């Protein structure tokens, strides 16, 4: 009886691991985890001209990773106010935007974003604006963010449905760069 139970337990664990590996959100998460501790430079692909991001050095640092949270500071020139916070919850992923002032205090517009509505695909996750975002930033209620990842690039994208607003940053993940200093509001470890 003990051998049968042991075999059953082993097969159950194996099936659980296999099912988890087949889950697209888990595959996507694993790809992000592989970037932990590294920084990458990128370009603003869309819009072609932008006063806030255009012509500035763009760096993302996959700075902090745990089993269920990944924090990715995103630097725009000398502006170290932005961090993408991804949280893996079962087979869904939540994206939040943490915005800080130079003294580390939260910006009045922070912690907005969305959560995937399904497991997505291993190379793309889509985040429609959530209720908190709709309350905080009414004009962003039609925002849809998506992140793609493959062997050569990571893209962060935004589309405000019903408007011409499209935003895309493409990071080259084949060439890690030197890790930057801590973003605003973080302490060096």
Automatic annotation (TrEMBL):
Residues 1-21 form the signal peptide. It comes from the Bacteria. Keywords: Signal. This is Secreted protein. It comes from Aquimarina algiphila.
């Amino acid at each position: 009886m003990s051998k049968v139970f042991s075999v059953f337990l082993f097969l159950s664990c194996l099936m659980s691991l296999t099912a988890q590996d087949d889950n697209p959100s888990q595959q996507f998460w694993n790809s992000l985890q592989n970037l932990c501790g590294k920084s990458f430079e990128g370009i603003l692909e869309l819009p072609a001209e932008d006063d806030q991001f255009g012509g500035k050095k763009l760096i993302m640092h996959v700075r902090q990773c745990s089993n269920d949270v990944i924090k990715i500071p995103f630097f725009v020139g000398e502006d170290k106010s932005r961090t993408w916070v991804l949280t893996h919850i079962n087979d869904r992923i939540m994206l939040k935007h943490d915005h800080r002032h130079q003294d580390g205090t939260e910006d009045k517009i922070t912690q907005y974003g969305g959560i995937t509505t399904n497991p997505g695909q291993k190379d793309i996750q889509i985040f429609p604006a959530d209720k908190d975002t709709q309350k905080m930033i009414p004009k962003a209620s039609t925002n849809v963010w998506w992140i793609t990842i493959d062997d050569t690039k990571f893209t962060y994208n935004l589309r405000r449905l019903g408007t011409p607003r499209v935003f895309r940053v493409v990071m080259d993940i084949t060439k890690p760069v030197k890790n930057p200093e801590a973003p605003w509001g973080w302490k060096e470890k």
